[in-house]
Amino acid sequence: MSVDKVAAFTEILAQDPGNAFARYGLAIEYSQRGETALAMEQFDTLQQLHPDYTAGYQMAAQTLMASGNTQQAEVRLRAGIESARRTGNQHALAEMAGMLEEMANPDV
Fold first, then answer.
1. Residues 92-101: pLDDT tens digits?
2. CATH number of the domain that 71 lies in?
3. Half-sphere exposure (CA, 13 Å, Cβ side) for 52?
4. Tens of pLDDT along 35-94?
5. What residue ranges in 23-106 does DSSP mark as E strands?
6. Pick from 9, 66, 75: which is nearest to 32 by CA?
7. How many domains does the chain have?
8. What is the DSSP string of the chain?
9. 52 φ, ψ to 5°?
10. What is the reported pTM?
11. Where in the sequence is the domain holding 57, given as residue range(s)?
């Protein structure tokens, strides 16, 4: 029996619109399905409601990069780096800084 994760996360959000984990999960599911616009709507809402949910910035950037929108991906990475600094998340900071570096020097 297959679970429709979009339906499950949507149901959770109907009862608790501020649930950061469900919002993040819904965005990831849309991203994995190739539904970039829907994924980005959820990432936007996540970042508005929970500006220090650092993983959301990184995954939003990856979603944008996969769709070829590197300019917006860079904007998300920079915002994510600021979030990681605020929260002291050194691992996320290093990963996003590495992604930025890779974008700046794709031939290295």
1. 999 999 999 9
2. 1.25.40.10
3. 6
4. 999 999 999 999 999 999 999 999 999 999 999 999 999 999 999 999 999 999 999 999
5. none
6. 66
7. 1
8. ----HHHHHHHHHHH-TT-HHHHHHHHHHHHHTT-HHHHHHHHHHHHHH-TT-HHHHHHHHHHHHHTT-HHHHHHHHHHHHHHHHHHT-HHHHHHHHHHHHHHH-TT-
9. -110, 20
10. 0.91
11. 5-104
What is the length of the chain?
Answer: 108
Amino acid at 91: H
18: left (phi over 0), alpha (psi -120 to 50) or beta: alpha
* 61 neighbors 71 (Cβ within 8 angstroms): no
d(CA 14, CA 9) in angstroms, rounded, equals 9
